């Protein structure tokens, strides 16, 4: 039986670390690309969030354009909410926001809600999407819905 192979492009980050561990547990042969985490975090401090979101949308569009030309390729996309979990080299942006909230460092709180999910659960969802998901589909890996202002 052939070994299933996986290529992971963010193995030094919260999700990547947990995903690589889950893949190895399941017997995948993993090739991982890792960036210099300290340099990456320093660069991200200057990223405009709108540009980041736009780059995500453009990336999806580029992937779907390739899929339109290559019917033999399989890709499904897993979207996530705020991730927390073991081996977080950060804190991540979500983690820092939570720490700032807990230490009353935020100038105000906007009414609303968000979903918190464990990075290990997102890793499992990604593996499930690769094994059972449909080509060109997007899946949401989310956890418990929370509101910062709830009583």
Structure description:
Helix 1 links the parallel strand 1 and strand 2. The protein has 151 residues and is of the alpha/beta class. About 8% of the residues have low confidence. The strands form three sheets. Strands 4-5-7 form a three-stranded mixed β-sheet. Strands 1-2 form a two-stranded parallel ribbon. Strands 3-6 form a two-stranded parallel ribbon. The chain is built from five helices and seven strands.
Set out the fold topology.
Layout (H helix, E strand, L loop, with lengths): L4 E4 L5 H12 L3 E4 L4 H8 L4 H21 L7 E4 L1 E3 L8 H10 L11 E5 H14 L5 E4 L2 E3 L5
Parallel strand pairs: 1-2, 3-6, 4-5
Antiparallel strand pairs: 5-7
Keywords, separated by commas or semicolons:
single chain; 151 residues; alpha/beta; three-stranded mixed sheet; two-stranded parallel sheet; 5 helices; 7 strands; 18% strand
Strand content range: 15-25%
- Low-confidence sequence ranges: 39-50
Measured distance between first and last alpha carbons:
54 Å
Order of helices and strands: EHEHHEEHEHEE
Number of helical segments with 4 or more residues: 5
Radius of gyration: 17 Å
What spatial form do the alpha-carbon principal axes imply?
globular
| Multimerization state | single chain
Quick one: biggest sheet? 3 strands, mixed
Please count the beta strands (DSSP E, at least 2 residues each): 7
Helix coverage percent of residues?
Answer: 40-55%
What's the mean pLDDT score? 77
- Give, in spatial order, the strands making up the sheet with the most strands: 4-5-7
By secondary-structure content and strand pairing, the structural class works out as alpha/beta
